[in-house]
Amino acid sequence: SGQSRPMRILQFVQSAAAPGDANSAICAVDSYCANVEWAMNVGDKKGQILDAVVLAVRPRWVLELGTYCGYSTMRIARLLPPGARLVTLEMNQHYAQVAKQILGHAGLDTQVDLLVGASSALIPQLKKKFEMETFDLIFIDHWKASYLPDARLLEECGLLAPGTVLLADNVTCPGAPDYLQYVRNSPRYRSEYFPCQLEYLQVEDGMEKSVFLG
Ligand SMILES: CCCNc1ncnc2c1ncn2[C@@H]1O[C@H](/C=C/CNC(=O)c2cc(-c3ccc(F)cc3)cc(O)c2O)[C@H](C)[C@H]1O
Ligand SMILES: [Mg+2]
Fold first, then answer.
1. Ligand nearest the Cα atom of residue 147
2. How many whole angstroms from 173 Cα to the centroid of ligand 2?
3. What are phi and psi of 12, to 5 degrees?
4. Over the stretch 21-34, which tens digit does the pLDDT of each residue have?
5. Ligand 1 in contact with 66 (CB < 6 A)?
6. pLDDT tens for residues 72-110?
7. Whose alpha carbon is nearest atom 39 of ligand 1?
8. Do residues 119 and 150 make contact, with C-beta atoms less than 8 angstroms apart?
9. Which band of pLDDT confidence, cut at 50, 70 and 90, is reported for residue 191?
10. How far apart, in Å, do the first and last CA atoms of the chain sit?
11. Which stretches does DSSP call E strand in 51-152?
């Protein structure tokens, strides 16, 4: 049933997770994707690295590139201090609709602004739209070939401040070699690699944490 994988994930969350309970919604997605059908959520192992970074940064403004079903959106939103905002960008209308419903079920829609559109078109509008200056944390988990161009675009739009943390998923699998080469060799970043397993599988992956230096 459910014509798409994200729709089937949504239906499982709606049936298995307690409304308003973000942790039970996160557990429901992980249980479905570990036992029924794999999906490209960051998952619980890499999710714990994401959680640790969110807690360390205590961000006021967070940007996520690639909402998909909203799994990492939930992980970030549930840890934000009061008044903080998470802006997440998703170019696929169907995925955005599913994510909106999952976030609503989890009771996290007030902290999250989900914008439907391509990052390349939306990033230049963010300062004006949200009357903000720079992001404190950016989670990058969209098409892997877009990591580098979007990091450059964020620099050019003045959305990074010294200390802004970029956390990128999948730098090993599927990999984002041009992005890795850039953040590891540019004097504008201090980069650190976190080895980890790919979501729900015994496959090597890793996340790259890069602090913008200005
Ligand atoms: C203008 C375009 C850019 N701008 C954009 N602007 C807005 N939204 C964008 C943009 N580009 C993409 N999106 C959205 O983000 C999502 C895309 C997410 C992509 N994620 C992966 O491909 C992946 C693969 C594997 C994997 C590992 C091993 C395997 F064997 C198979 C797969 C694992 C992982 O953890 C992965 O995150 C969503 C589907 C898509 O609509
Ligand atoms: Mg990913």
1. 1
2. 9
3. -70, -40
4. 999 999 999 999 99
5. yes
6. 999 999 999 999 999 999 999 999 999 999 999 999 999
7. 68
8. yes
9. very high
10. 50
11. 61-65, 85-90, 112-116, 135-140
